[in-house]
């Protein structure tokens, strides 16, 4: 038998006996060659396979036919049999292109690739019998029956993309459950009624809001209300799979419907929020619109089990919530001690069709799904596919047929389902849930519907899509379509449905009356109470005992046993050993390691992730040691004490947006840990600006959500060009208000040690933006003694350690430029000019700053910075200094610039020299 014939034979049996896919024919050929030499060298199944097809092939050589048999031998034309196999494969691969997926009937396609003639078959072959491989149980079937099965399985109101999947086992798993088209028989009468009730609730709720609050934004779910019974089915099924918690992220479309009809928020609360005078009780911040708010619920399923559901708050950047949800889910997996199997927590992301394809954070988040530091055991993605984005139709919004094409990168199944077929939709989402639990991978359900109104209820969609919205206006509600089906089968009566409608609308009316009564008793809103944190300057005990510091430090500098260290790393450990022994001062990298180590020793977990963070961008951290001869690694921070807390450090993918979002989400649900995201260079945070602006900066004000995440952003002018100098200090300071976060730039290892420890020891959560260093990592003057770690705490402002007497002026600065100023001061012989460091820019400790400055009784102040005048801290600090001091204040720094820094070392040095000179100028 030649290879081509062997391939055909193998396709014939559908590879039931092995997980070898059709793409691995070279392995099949290897089995065949081994069998020919020695039949006992393969399994009994493979032996029987080769024996049978050797016989069939030899017979086909005699009469041009190959015999396929199970119970009886039926002669089949070999060429047409092969065509049938190809037809089956083609429908499995391409059937979704011609499926009945659009409820409105617009997007139906003819597809020449699936016509019989393309395979050398015709109408005369329809009543001939062929071997069906493994289609719907396999066996001999007439071509007509084969086509019927294929169309019902892959071209109906439910279609699945799965032939792109790498795993044969997973493809077989999908096909077994899809083929045969009998999924509608799997629903009991009671479940069908529940689906109808869910649809009625969803539609009646939207209609109620539409008539009572005319023109107000609610982002209606109408046209995709099947989403509600889908989510009801998911939650009800969770106990069967051991799922204890669901973490959900979704944009605004359908959010109010989901919160009330699934998460069981009181309808009155929603009606309250529609009042123009509504002010949430106890709000301290600005709050947010009702369709962005989060919600937490403990839901009792109909079986009596409890499933907790957390809906994350979401800004209008639709997909920004994706990585946040993944981080929250991973944190809960840690809480539920489910870090191995990852089956107890289900992340669910609800997308829009235009945003799923259009926003890059979707791809970034998908890429996290199987990475060591970010995987969550698979995410259930549900796309509420309105077939439109604001006013943009699909052909203007994407270059692909389906909006799900970006998910193909993960080689996971994608279920496309017509939203007017609730049974197909519920079946699809339950199958997707099962797939996630079995295989621990992402899965996508594309719920294709329409949007009954404009993007919001104030838009007029017929301006841009007149034909589409004419069809929508004439299209019946999903519940009406489904009810007609149930009436025909005798499973429901119209009277039962009408009775349910009447009861539900009566409940809505009652809740609205309660809301009106409550609103009338409320006082008109006044100016809100400003946010503040009175404890933000309270001292925090961050020093450790000498005994603890020595124990931790010595543990961290031990060479691992039977480990081949890189000679340079061995030298670094030796230097750190001398530091902990007091033979040399402690530098920044080891101060950071000691901060992590002492926290771990005290039972506080630490997680750090970022690009190349294990080694460190500047080869400074070496938190993970690698054997030079064998593939193994050693993490000293995991070997401090048997009862220490967990330490996690990960090299992240080349993503800022998704990774910062993930770590931010993790910090929300694991606040007792020190959670750190590190940028490779400070300005790389630009790529995560959406997360910074919409979450870190404003989440407490909008949603009452607090985080203690730390951002490590290397910052400092070293002549490395515009993209490797500035972490854009000015952007963070511009966003500071109401004690919403902390912005600091430590210039001593001890202060760096204390600020990291303070972050988890102070008793409340605030994001910490911490500008870190490059050249100072090994600067001999940027050092601290052991005594600085076992006493004291973080200092927001540092006086000049070399100047104690009054001076004509004082220089104020922040960051690395301090050491340049000290060196320049020495070179020009002006040792009496004090240089004061502001280590914490926001919140500015005005009392401490004033006390330190007035020690020197200066007649003027100079603010010195490396950044251009329109950047850095100058614009932020000037008005504050003017409020505190009645002194002339001058500027020493680079001139205003469009770019953060010059691209040449020569210009950099000239500019640096000038700003230093300007600082000391009389």
Name the helicity range: 25-40%
Number of helices, counting only DSSP H or I runs of 4 residues or more: 30
Structural class: alpha/beta
Q: Indicate the low-confidence ranges by residue numbers.
A: 11-25, 55-74
The number of strands is 26
What kind of assembly state do the chains in view correspond to?
single chain
Into which percentage range does the β-strand content fall?
5-15%
What can be said about the biggest beta sheet? 8 strands, mixed
Rounded to the nearest angstrom, the radius of gyration is 33 Å
User: What is the mean predicted local confidence, pLDDT?
Assistant: 90
Describe the structure.
The structure is a single chain. This protein is an alpha/beta fold. The strands form 6 sheets. The chain has an 8-stranded mixed β-sheet with strand order 5-11-12-10-9-6-8-7, with helices on both faces. Strands 16-13-17-18-20-19-24 form a 7-stranded mixed β-sheet, sandwiched between helices. α7 (189-212) packs across α8. The termini are far apart. The model is unreliable at 11-25 and 55-74 (pLDDT under 50).
List the helices and strands and how they pair.
Elements: H1 3-13, H2 25-37, H3 44-63, E1 65-69, E2 73-77, H4 78-94, E3 129-131, E4 140-142, H5 143-154, E5 158-161, H6 168-178, H7 189-212, H8 227-237, E6 245-250, H9 255-261, H10 267-273, E7 295-300, E8 306-311, H11 321-335, E9 345-352, H12 353-358, H13 360-368, E10 380-385, H14 394-397, E11 414-418, H15 422-439, E12 443-448, H16 466-474, H17 478-488, H18 494-521, H19 546-556, H20 567-580, H21 588-601, E13 606-610, E14 625-626, E15 633-634, E16 647-651, H22 657-669, E17 674-678, H23 689-696, H24 699-703, E18 710-714, H25 729-734, E19 742-744, H26 749-761, E20 768-772, E21 797-798, E22 809-813, H27 817-828, E23 835-838, E24 840-842, H28 846-855, E25 860-868, H29 874-884, E26 889-894, H30 905-920
Parallel strand pairs: 6-8, 6-9, 9-10, 10-12, 11-12, 13-16, 13-17, 17-18, 18-20, 19-20, 22-23, 22-25, 25-26
Antiparallel strand pairs: 1-2, 3-4, 5-11, 7-8, 14-15, 19-24, 21-23
């Amino acid at each position: 038998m030649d290879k081509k014939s062997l391939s055909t034979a193998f396709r014939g049996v559908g590879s039931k006996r092995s997980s070898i896919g059709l793409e691995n024919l070279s392995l099949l050929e290897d089995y065949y060659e081994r069998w020919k030499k020695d039949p006992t060298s393969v399994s009994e199944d493979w032996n029987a396979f080769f024996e049978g097809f050797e016989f069939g092939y030899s017979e086909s050589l005699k009469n041009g036919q190959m015999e396929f048999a199970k119970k009886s031998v039926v002669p089949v034309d070999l060429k047409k049999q092969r065509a049938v196999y190809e037809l089956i494969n083609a429908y499995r691969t391409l059937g979704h292109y011609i499926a009945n997926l659009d409820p409105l009937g617009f997007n139906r396609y003819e597809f020449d690739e699936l016509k019989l003639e393309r395979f050398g078959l015709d109408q005369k072959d329809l009543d001939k019998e062929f071997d069906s491989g493994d289609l719907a149980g396999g066996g001999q079937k007439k071509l007509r029956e084969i086509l019927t099965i294929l169309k019902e399985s892959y071209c109906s109101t439910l279609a699945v993309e799965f032939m792109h999947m790498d795993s044969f086992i997973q493809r077989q798993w999908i096909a077994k459950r899809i083929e045969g088209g009998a999924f509608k028989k799997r629903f009991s009468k009671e479940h069908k009624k529940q689906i109808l009730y869910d649809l009625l609730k969803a539609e009646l709720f939207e209609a109620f809001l539409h008539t009572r609050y005319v023109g107000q934004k609610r982002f209606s779910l109408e046209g995709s209300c099947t989403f509600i019974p889908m989510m009801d089915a998911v939650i009800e099924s969770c106990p069967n799979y051991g799922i204890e918690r669901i973490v959900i992220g979704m944009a605004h479309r359908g959010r109010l419907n989901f919160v009330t009809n699934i998460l069981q928020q009181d309808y009155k609360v929603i009606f309250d929020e529609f009042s123009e005078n509504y002010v949430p009780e106890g709000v301290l911040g600005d709050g947010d619109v009702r369709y962005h708010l989060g919600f937490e619920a403990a839901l009792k399923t109909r079986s009596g089990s409890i499933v907790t559901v957390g809906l994350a708050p979401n800004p209008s950047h639709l997909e920004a919530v994706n990585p946040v949800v993944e981080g929250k889910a991973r944190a809960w997996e840690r809480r539920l001690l489910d870090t191995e199997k990852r089956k107890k927590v289900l992340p669910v992301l609800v997308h829009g069709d235009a945003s799923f394809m259009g926003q890059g954070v979707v791809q970034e988040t998908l890429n996290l799904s199987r990475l060591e530091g970010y995987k969550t055991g698979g995410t259930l993605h549900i796309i509420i596919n309105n077939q439109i984005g604001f006013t943009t139709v699909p052909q203007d919004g994407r270059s692909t047929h389906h909006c799900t094409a970006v998910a193909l990168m993960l080689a996971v199944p994608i279920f496309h389902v017509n939203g007017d077929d609730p049974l197909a939709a519920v079946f699809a989402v339950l199958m997707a849930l099962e797939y996630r639990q079995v295989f621990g991978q992402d899965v996508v359900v594309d719920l294709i519907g329409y949007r009954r109104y404009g993007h919001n209820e104030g838009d007029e969609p017929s301006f841009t899509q007149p034909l589409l919205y004419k069809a929508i206006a004439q299209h019946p509600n999903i519940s009406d379509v489904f009810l007609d089906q149930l009436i025909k089968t005798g499973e429901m009566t119209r009277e039962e449905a009408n009775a349910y409608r009447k009861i539900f609308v009566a409940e809505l009316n009652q809740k609205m009356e309660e809301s009106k009564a409550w609103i009338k008793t409320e006082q008109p809103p006044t100016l809100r109470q400003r946010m503040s944190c009175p404890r933000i300057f309270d001292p925090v005990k961050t020093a450790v005992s000498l005994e603890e510091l020595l124990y931790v430090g010595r543990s961290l500098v031990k060479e691992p046993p039977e480990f081949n260290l890189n000679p340079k790393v061995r030298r670094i450990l030796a230097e750190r050993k001398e530091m902990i022994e007091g033979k040399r001062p402690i530098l920044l990298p080891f101060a950071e390691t000691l901060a992590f180590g002492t926290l771990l020793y005290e039972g506080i977990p630490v997680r750090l992730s970022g690009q190349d963070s294990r080694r460190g961008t500047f080869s400074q951290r070496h938190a993970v040691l690698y054997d030079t001869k064998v593939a193994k690694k050693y993490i000293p921070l995991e070997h401090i004490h048997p009862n220490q807390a967990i330490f996690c450090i990960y090299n992240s993918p080349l993503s800022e947006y998704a990774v910062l979002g993930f770590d931010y989400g993790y910090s929300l649900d694991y606040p007792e840990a020190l959670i750190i995201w590190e940028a490779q260079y400070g300005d790389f945070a630009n790529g995560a600006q959406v997360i910074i602006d919409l979450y870190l900066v404003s989440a407490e004000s909008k949603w009452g959500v607090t985080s203690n995440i730390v951002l490590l952003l290397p910052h400092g002018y070293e002549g490395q060009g515009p993209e490797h100098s500035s972490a854009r200090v000015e952007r963070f300071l511009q966003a500071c208000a109401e004690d919403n976060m902390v912005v600091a730039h430590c210039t001593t290892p001890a202060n760096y040690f204390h600020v990291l420890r303070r972050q988890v020891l102070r008793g409340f959560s605030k994001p910490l933006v911490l500008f870190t260093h490059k050249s100072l990592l090994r600067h001999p003057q940027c050092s601290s003694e052991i005594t600085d770690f076992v006493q004291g705490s973080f200092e927001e402002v540092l006086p000049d350690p070399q100047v104690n007497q009054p001076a004509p002026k004082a220089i104020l600065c922040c960051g690395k430029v301090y050491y340049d100023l000290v060196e320049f001061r020495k070179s020009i012989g002006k040792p009496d000019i004090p240089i004061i460091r502001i280590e914490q820019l926001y919140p500015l400790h005005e009392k401490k700053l004033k006390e330190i400055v007035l020690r020197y009784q200066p007649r003027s102040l100079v603010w010195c910075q490396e950044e251009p005048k329109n950047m850095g801290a100058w614009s932020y600090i000037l008005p504050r200094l003017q409020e505190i001091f009645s002194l002339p204040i001058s500027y020493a720094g680079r001139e205003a610039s469009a770019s953060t820094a010059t691209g040449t070392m020569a210009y950099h040095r000239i500019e640096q020299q000038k700003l230093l000179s300007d600082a000391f100028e009389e």
